Amino acid sequence: MTPVYFDHNATTRVDDAVMEAMLPYFQQEYGNASSRHALGITARRAIDKARTQVAAAVGVQPTQVIFTSGGSEANNLFIRGAADNLKPSNILISAIEHPCVLKPTQELARRVSERWTMHRLTVNQQGQIDLNAANKTITEQKPALVSVMLANNETGVIQDVTAIAEMARSENAYIHTDAIQGLGKIPVDFTALKVHAMTLSAHKIYGPKGAAALIVDKRLLLKPLIYGGGHENGLRSGTENVPAIVGFGKACELAKSRTNETAAHVSALRDHLEHGLIDMGATIFGAEVARIPNTCYFALPDIEGDTLVVKLDKIGFAVASGAACSSVNPGQSHVLEAMQINPMLARCAVRISLGRSNTMTQIENFLQETKIIVEALRRMSGISI
Known about the structure:
The chain is of the alpha/beta class and 385 residues long. The protein is built from twelve helices and twelve strands.
C-alpha cells in the first residue's frame, strides 16, 4: 500500500511550484543579499519579491513583514521583543496556545526581576475562548500584552480573535495572534483581525521549513532577539535564507489563490471521515464550533491514541496523537486538559489533518482499516479482562 499522509498540521510536502522557484537560489543565484555586487542584488530583489508576496497574503504592506527562521522564533520575537520595550505588567495568553507561545510567556513570568505576571484565558469544552470571561479578565488585569492563536493546531478550533483584539485595545494592550494553522485554510486578514502582530510559517502551506514571519503593526516597538548585522530593519540579524524565503513567498501566493478550493476539498473529506468515525463510537473534539476545514481530532473510547497511531503507521497511514512540535513531552494534551476533557478519553486522542493531495478513496481505506484495528484491540482488551 502506498503510504498515506494525514498529518498536514505538522508539516506539508513542498509544492512543485515552490520548489521550482527556490532551486535557482541554491546554485545559480547564490549571492548574499547584503552584498552589493550583481549576485547580491539579485538575492535582495528575490527577498523583496517574497516579502511582497507574504504581505499580500494577509493584506499588509511589505515593510510590515519580518522574516524569521520559523514560527517559534516569530512568536518568541513578539513576546520577548515587546516585553523588553514595556514596563513589566500582565501578559495574557489563551490556555490552549502552542508551546512556542506558552513557554516564553512562562519564562517571562518566572524571572522575578522582570516582574511580569502571566494569566490564561479559559476555554469551554469545545475549545473556544469564553469571551465573557476574557472580557472580565482583560478589564480586571489590564494587560500590556495579549496573545491568542487564530486556529488551534490540535483541534482546529477557530477563535474570535477580532473580538478579543477589541477588548485588548480598549485597555491599550498589544494583541498578537499565531495564525500559522489558519493561513491557506481560511481567509486571514491582518487588518480585519485588528491585531498588532501575527505569526505565519511556510512549511504549513506547502513551503519549506526554515522560513516564517512576524507581521507587525508599524506602531509596535520590538527589541530584537538576535543582534548582529541589522538585517530585517534591525529586528532579526543573520544572513537571510534566500531559497527558503523565496519558497515562503511563492507558497503564500499559492495559498491565497487556493484557499477556497482547498477548503472545499478537505471539508468534504473530513465530513465523510467524521461520519465514519462517529459510527465507530468516536468523540470529535470541537465538533460543535467553527474549525479549520482540514482538522479532525477524535478519540475512540478505550483505544489508546499512541497505540492506534503506531498500528496505523505500520499499515501506511501517517496520523498524530497530538501536536508534532511538542511530541518530545509525552502526556495528556494541555489543550484537552484546558477543555476539561476526561483524562481517560484524552489519552485516546488522535489527530488527522488533511491536505490537497488526499482523496476520498484514502478516507474510505482509512475507515476500513481503523475499524479492523479497533475491533481487534477491543477483543484483546476483553480477553485480558
